[in-house]
Design goal:
This protein is α+β, with helices and mostly antiparallel strands. The protein has a single domain, classed as 3-Layer(bab) Sandwich (minor pseudopilin epsh fold). The protein is 33% helix and 28% strand. The strands form two sheets. The protein has a four-stranded antiparallel beta sheet with strand order 3-2-1-5, with helices on one face. A four-stranded antiparallel beta sheet has the order 4-6-7-8, with helices on one face. β2 and β3 form a beta hairpin. The N and C termini lie far apart (84 Å).
Length: 154
């Protein structure tokens, strides 16, 4: 007796309709992801700006401790910039972010600028920097006694 040979005719591949449906579903999924990412753009922008400013403030505090001398972070509200006294670089905050500062009155100048001063012992003038963009608000708190800096989502 001869063995029977099986032939399979069911493995022909996918139909054009099946491929079209899969591509359509993938296009919808990528579209939903795109919308999700674009709505988080402002939130990412403000959080990134807040983290950059925290890095600059912590750097200034570290410099004050290391050098044993005052180091300031000067904020220019008209230009939305800030600068550390020991560096020449000017850091830019996106124009659409509104910046406010609560600190010692003596640290404000009449030209739309204010300083946050860190002393050689680690203390500071203290205060709170608030960054606002639409419905997002981030607060950077600077403890006057210890000079420690933390970020809070308002």
């Amino acid at each position: 007796m001869l063995p029977k040979i099986k032939t399979t005719r069911g493995h022909r591949g996918f139909t054009l309709i099946e491929l079209s449906v899969v591509l359509f579903v993938m296009a919808l999924a990528f579209g939903a992801i795109g919308i999700s990412l674009s709505s988080g753009n402002d939130a990412t922008t403000i959080k990134s700006a807040a983290r950059d400013m925290i890095s600059a403030l912590r750097y200034a505090r570290g410099q004050a401790l290391m050098l044993g001398d005052e180091t300031t972070v000067a904020i220019d509200f008209a230009e939305n910039t800030y600068q550390i006294s020991t560096r020449d670089k000017i850091y830019h905050i996106p124009k659409k972010i509104h910046v406010t500062l609560v600190t010692a009155q003596s640290e404000f100048s009449g030209e739309g600028q204010a300083n946050i001063r860190f002393f050689g012992d680690g203390s500071s003038t203290g205060g709170r920097v608030t960054l606002e963009l639409d419905q997002w608000t981030w607060r950077i708190n600077i403890n006057w006694l210890t000079g420690l800096i933390d970020l809070a989502d308002a």
